[in-house]
Amino acid sequence: MKQVRLFFDFQCSPFWLREGDSIERNVSVQELPIETSLKYEFEALNDYFQKHFCNLDVPQASGFVTIAEALYFVQTFNALIYRLTIALGDEYEFTFRCYNDPAGLVRETS
């Protein structure tokens, strides 16, 4: 069975694929057998995440600035994982990192 893991991380696609006994590898959403509109929505959410969490010049400035930004990410993420689960069907085992604490995604400011 193919396994897909969804995990947003620094400078990469949020999708990780394992087929059989193979080593898990980072894959583009374009490699997944899902509708084009859903692919674009995941790409947009990943761009949003990267924009807020990948500050190479000042890493401690990474994170959402407001709770509204964090809520947008969490709500969009939750809506998309529901659709992705349906799209992947029984052919894939699907896991994801749960983002259930928007406040934990907001960076601390001094």
Mean pLDDT: 87
> Secondary-structure element order, as H and E?
EEEHHE
Q: Helical element count?
A: 2
Main structural class: alpha+beta
Low-confidence stretches: none
Shape: globular
Rounded Rg: 15 Å
Secondary structure: number of strands: 4
Beta-strand level of the residues, as a percent range? Answer: 15-25%
First and last CA, distance: 48 Å
The biggest beta sheet reads: 4 strands, mixed
Give the count of structural domains: 1
Strand order of the largest sheet: 3-2-1-4
Q: Which percent bin holds the helix content?
A: 25-40%
Structure description:
With 110 residues, the chain is α+β, with helices and mostly antiparallel strands. The chain has one domain. It is 36% helix and 16% strand. The protein contains two helices and four strands. The protein has a four-stranded mixed β-sheet with strand order 3-2-1-4, covered by helices on one side. A hairpin with an 8-residue loop joins strand 1 and strand 2. Helix 1 runs antiparallel to helix 2. The N and C termini lie far apart (48 Å).
